Amino acid sequence: MTRVSVFSSPLLLGFDHVERMIERATKAGSEGYPPYNIEQIGEDGLRITLAVAGFSATDLTITIEDNQLVIRGKQADEKDRVYLHRGIAARQFQRSFVLADGIEVIGAELVNGLLHVDLRRPKPEPQIRSITIRTGNGDGGSQIGVSGKSGGSV
């Protein structure tokens, strides 16, 4: 059975990468540990907060891989301790967030067992492009040229 995608319409050319990002987001959303919040800070700011109690800054890594923010945690297992009961597991985790184009990671801070990752979503500037059409004069066909204007610097 073939799966039909919303993005298979001939009117949505070049949106196959959006479908792949949605698939990655749904796979990443099924994870349960560690719990997290996403909040809006100001007009163009976002903050992801993960509850990472017991992890130090050296136990955590934050990377960006193909428009995906990946946060990993791995605690060193202390072999010199003898536990009578171990209810706090030293487990590793990986939490992924798919980032839209243009989202920038500003920084990260670990405070009282909470990892805060600050992001900035710049406002898109409208772009107007003019497409010039040239006609062929019998010597091999027509040519199409593109000229563009942007609402600001890119």
What does this structure look like?
With 154 residues, this protein is mostly beta strands. It has a domain at 10-77 and 85-120: Immunoglobulin-like, CATH 2.60.40.790. 8% of the residues lie in helices and 38% in strands. The chain is built from one helix and nine strands; from the N terminus they run H-E-E-E-E-E-E-E-E-E. The protein is elongated and about 90 Å long. The two termini are 44 Å apart.
Helix content: under 10%
Silhouette: elongated
Query: What is the arithmetic mean of pLDDT?
Result: 81
CATH topology grouping of the domain at 10-77 and 85-120: Immunoglobulin-like
Strand content: 35-45%
What is the annotated CATH architecture of the domain at 10-77 and 85-120?
Sandwich
Order of helices and strands: HEEEEEEEEE
Rg over CA atoms, rounded to whole Å, is 24 Å
Number of strands: 9
Q: Give the CA-CA distance, first to last residue.
A: 44 Å
The level-1 CATH class of the domain at 10-77 and 85-120? Mainly Beta
Q: How does the major sheet shape up? A: 4 strands, antiparallel
Task: Count every helix, treating DSSP H or I runs of 4 or more residues as helices.
Answer: 1
Unreliable residue runs: none
The strand line-up of the biggest sheet is: 1-2-7-6
Going by helix content, strand content and strand pairing, the class is mainly beta
